[in-house]
Amino acid sequence: MANVNRDEHDFWIRTPSGRLLTVQVKTASMAKNDTFSFFKGNVTANTNIVALVALPPEVVLIYPGDQMQQRCAVGQFTPEHMASSIKEHLQ
Fold it and tell me: How high is the pLDDT of residue 80?
């Protein structure tokens, strides 16, 4: 993993298969009506992966950049969903 010093992406990662992906991290620290909201902001067409982080419960969900969810139910942020999203999108 490498830190990126650009406005467009937060960092790059190399997957086990050797792909280099750009990552944008979005966080939410408070749910409203059992939903976390994330600001799309600087997610661009060049963003390969969006990492949605909910604090608490300190769980991250991984999506392709073009499939970013701006609203996610609190119930989606489980260790099981985190593991499956990582497995699905970071191969």
Answer: 97
Q: Please report, for residues 15, 18, 45, the alpha-carbon distance to residue 54 in angstroms, rounded to integers and kept in the order given.
A: 23, 28, 23
CA separation for the pair 5, 8 (Å, rounded): 9
Distance CA 91, CA 73 (A): 25
For position 20, what pLDDT does the model report? 93
Q: How far apart are the first and last CA of the chain?
A: 14
pLDDT for 71 equals: 96
3-state SS assignment for residue 22? strand
Predicted confidence at residue 38, as pLDDT, reads 95
Q: Are 68 and 44 in contact (CB under 8 A)?
A: no
- Sorted by where each starts, the structural domains of the chain and their CATH numbers stand as 2-89 (3.40.1350.10)
Instruction: Please check the confidence at residue 45 and state whether its pLDDT lies above 80.
Output: yes
